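Notes continue from the previous slide.

Worked example: a multi-chain complex. Inputs as given:
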Amino acid sequence: MYLIKEIKEIAPKIKKMVLEAPLLAKKHKAGQFVMVINTEKGERIPLTIADKDPEKGEITLIFQEVGKSTIEMGLRKPGEYIYDVVGPLGRPTHIINYGNVVCIGGGVGTAPLYPITKKMKETGNYIITILGARNKDLFILEKEMESVSDEFYQTTDDGTKGRHGLVTDELQALIDSGKKIDLVLAIGPAIMMKFVSLLTKKYNIPTMVSLNSIMVDGTGMCGACRVSVGGVTKFVCVDGPEFDGHQVNFDELLKRQAMYKDMEEIALKKFLEELKKKEPCGGCHA
Amino acid sequence: MPDKKWIPQPKRPRTPIPEQKPEERRRNFKEVALGYTAELAIQEAYRCLQCKNPLCVEGCPVGIDIPGFIRHIGEGRFEEAYYTLKKYNFLPAICGRVCPQESQCEKFCIMGKRFKPVAIGRLERFAADYFMESGKKEDFKIDPPSGKKVAIIGSGPAGLTCAGELAKKGHKVTIFEALHKPGGVLVYGIPEFRLPKRIVDIEVENLKKMGVEIKTSAIIGKLYTIDELLEEEGFDAVFIGTGAGLPYFMGIPGENLNGVYSANEFLTRVNLMRAYMFPEADTPVKIGEKVAVVGCGNTALDAARTALRLGAKETHIVYRRSKGEIPAREEEVQHAIEEGVQFNLLTNPIEIIGDENGWVKALKCIRTRCGEPDESGRRRPIPIEGSEFEFPVDTVIMAIGQGPNPLIQETQPDIEVKRWGIIKIDEEGRTSKKGVFAGGDIVTGGATVILAMGQGKKAAQAIDEYLKTGKWA
Ligand SMILES: Cc1cc2nc3c(=O)[nH]c(=O)nc-3n(C[C@H](O)[C@H](O)[C@H](O)COP(=O)(O)OP(=O)(O)OC[C@H]3O[C@@H](n4cnc5c(N)ncnc54)[C@H](O)[C@@H]3O)c2cc1C
Ligand SMILES: Cc1cc2nc3c(=O)[nH]c(=O)nc-3n(C[C@H](O)[C@H](O)[C@H](O)COP(=O)(O)OP(=O)(O)OC[C@H]3O[C@@H](n4cnc5c(N)ncnc54)[C@H](O)[C@@H]3O)c2cc1C
Ligand code: SF4
Ligand code: SF4
Ligand code: FES
Ligand SMILES: [Mg+2]
C-alpha cells in the first residue's frame, strides 16, 4: 500500500501524483519505471518515475487519463492508498557526455523525458529541447524542461504556441541550420518516435527512443512487452525501455499496442457507467 | 499405539478418485479431482503391502516414509500421517496434487508390477487436506532465536521450503518476492482447477505464523542487489530461488503477431491477474474460437485447458514428438483428452501467419517422424518434407519451455552461471559467492515442485550449518 500525498491536474486529463515510497525514491535512476496496481482488482500498468525526492521519500508519477486504469487513478484523493507499486524497473538511461543532445518530448512523454534531460544536463551535455503538443494547453513540465535546457522549442498542431507543426519540423529546421547533433532522445507516442527515427536515420544521427509496449509483470517473465529491434525480439521491460530508434520495428509496436482496444473500451464504458450511478452529478469524465 | 496387524488387500482395484464430470468441469475453474473421503483413503491404504524394502521411497525425490504414512492412514490416524509427511515434505497438499507420481514414487511401487501401483499421491493429498480441513493448528517446533538473518529470493516451492526449514531453526527469515502475491508458479502458473490457490495461501500463512516475513513486490537486482542485502541490510546468508520464469519463443516468423502469447503471459493474466473475471477485474485476455498451444508439458496442458474454460470452441495441442515423449503428468493428459483438448502429435509449427491488421489467422506446420534419440534421450523429431499444411487458428500459445530470469545474474556477475544463465551450485546448494545459496528451477532449469522443494530443504541445512560455523567450503 502506497500513500497518496498529492494529486493534481497539471494539464487537461494529465495528472501528477506524489506517492510516499522512500525505497523507490532512493533506488530510482533516470529512465526507470514502476508497475502500478491501483486497486485490489486492478491491472498492472507501467508508469515512469517522473521525479523523486529521496529526502522526503517521495516519487512523482505523471499520467494521462486514457482509459479505465488511469482515469480511476486520477480520481483518487490524497490520504488514500495505491494498492501496490513495484520497481524500479527497466534499464536506467545510459547517461554520459554525448555533446549536443536534442531531447524531444511528445505529449505526456515529456514526463519520462524530464528526469533524463535533467541528468543529461548535469552530466555536461548541451541540451536542445523540443516539446510538442496538440495545443498550448496540453504542455506539461514546460518550466522544468526549460530550466534544464540550453535551447528550448515548442511546437503545436494548431499553432497556438511555438512552431505550427510537428516536432519533426522543428528537428528538421535544426538539422538544416547545420547544428551539430550528437544524440537525439525522443519520448512520446510511438508514431512520433517512428517519424523522428525515420528523419534522423536519413542524417545518421544516433537516436534513442523509450518504448511503451503493453506490459503485465514488468520483470521479464511474460513476454507481453516484446518488440523487434534490429530483427531480434527484445523484452521492453528488461532490455529497455530505451532502444536505438533506427532498429525498432515501430509498425509492429503500433499494432501490438492496439491488441486490447475492444476490451479496453468495454472496461472503460462499464467503469464510467458505474461512476455515473455513484455520482450522477459528475459526468465530467465521459 | 495399538499396532494391530496389517492385512493388505493387493487384489483390490486401485481406488478411483471422485472427479468433476468432464462436460461440467471443462467450463469451470473448480478443482477437477475432489479427493478421497476417509473411507476411500483407508480402502486405498490397505492396498499397500508395507514392504520391508519399500521401492516407492527410492522414487520419491525427498524420500518420504511412504509405507509409514500410508499405515497411519489405514489405521485412521490421519493427523499422524500428516506429521509423518511433513517430516520430509514441506508442502504435501501441493505435491500430492502436482507431483508426476507415475514417474516417481508410484513408478517404483511393487504393486505396479502385477496390479496398479498404490495411489500414493492421492493418499498424500488426503492426509494433508484432512489436516487442513480439521482446522487444527499446526504444531511448529521452533528453536530459540539464533540472531541470524537470512534473505530468501523468490517465493516458489524452493523459497517457501527453505524459509520454513530455516525458521524452524530459529533464524530470522525474510522472503523477497517480485510479484504482488507469494507462491511463484504455484500461484501465477498452475491453474485453480489443478491446485486451488487457497492451499498455497494456507501454506504461506503458516510460514508467517512461524515468523517468516514476506515482502512482495520486492525485486532483488532492482530494489536491492545481493551485495546490498549482505553488506547493508544485515543478512548473514542469501538463498536464491528465483525459478525459471523467462518464456522461450521458437524464433519462427510471426511470433510477435497479435494473438500470440507465451504460456506464462496467458496463465499470469488469468491466474494472477484474474482475467477470467474481466471486466470485474481490469486485466484483459484474448481467447479466440480456435486456440493452438505449442508444446506438451504441464504448462502447455494448463494453458490449453484454461483456454477451454474461458470459452474457446476448439483447443489444440501441437507437439513435434510422439505420445511416448509427452513430458506432462499422465493424469493431466488424460484429463485434457476427456475435456476435449485435441492432440496433434508429430507436428511442428514453422510459421505463424497473420492477417492485414497484424492478427494471427493460421499456424503453418510440418509433420514430423521419430528419429534417433537426442541428448535428452528422447527421439528426435525429423520433419517430413512436403508435408507442410496450414491450420486456421486465432490464438497461439507458446509453451515450449522457460529459462532463468536474468535479473539476478545481471546485477551479480560474481555468481557463476552455466549455460543459459542457470546458477551453478555444489552438492550443498552453495553458489560461487560466499554466503549465497541457490535451489529450484534457477539451478535445474524448468523441473518439478518436489525437486525445487527438495533443494530448498537441502540448502536450508547447508545455510544453517554455515550460520553456525561460519565455514565456507
Ligand atoms: C515503460 C512505460 C512507461 C510509461 N510511462 C508512462 C507515464 O509516465 N505516463 C503515462 O501517462 N503513461 C505511461 N505509459 C503508458 C501507460 O502505461 C498506459 O497509458 C496505461 O497503461 C493505460 O492504461 P488504461 O487502463 O488507463 O488505458 P487502456 O484503455 O487500458 O489503454 C489505453 C492504451 O494504453 C496502452 N496500454 C494498455 N494497457 C497497458 C499496459 N498494461 N501496459 C502498457 N500499456 C498499456 C495500450 O496501448 C492501450 O491501447 C508508459 C508505458 C510504458 C510501457
Ligand atoms: C504452468 C506450469 C505448470 C506446472 N505444473 C507442474 C506440475 O504439475 N508438477 C510439477 O511438479 N511441476 C510443475 N511445474 C513446474 C514447477 O512449478 C516448477 O518446477 C517449480 O515451481 C519451481 O519452483 P521454484 O521455487 O524454483 O521457482 P518458481 O515457482 O518459479 O518461483 C520463483 C519465484 O521467484 C520470483 N522471482 C524471480 N526473480 C526474482 C527476483 N529477482 N527477486 C525476487 N523474486 C524473484 C518469481 O516471481 C517467482 O515467484 C509447472 C510449471 C508451470 C509454469
Ligand atoms: S512427494 Fe511426490 S514423489 Fe514423493 S511420495 Fe509424494 S507424490 Fe510421491
Ligand atoms: S512399494 Fe508400494 S506396496 Fe510397497 S510400501 Fe511402497 S507403496 Fe506400499
Ligand atoms: S512485461 Fe512481462 S516480460 Fe515484459
Ligand atoms: Mg487498461
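Summary box: Residues 67 and 265 of chain A are 8 Å apart (CA to CA). The radius of gyration of chain A is 19 Å.
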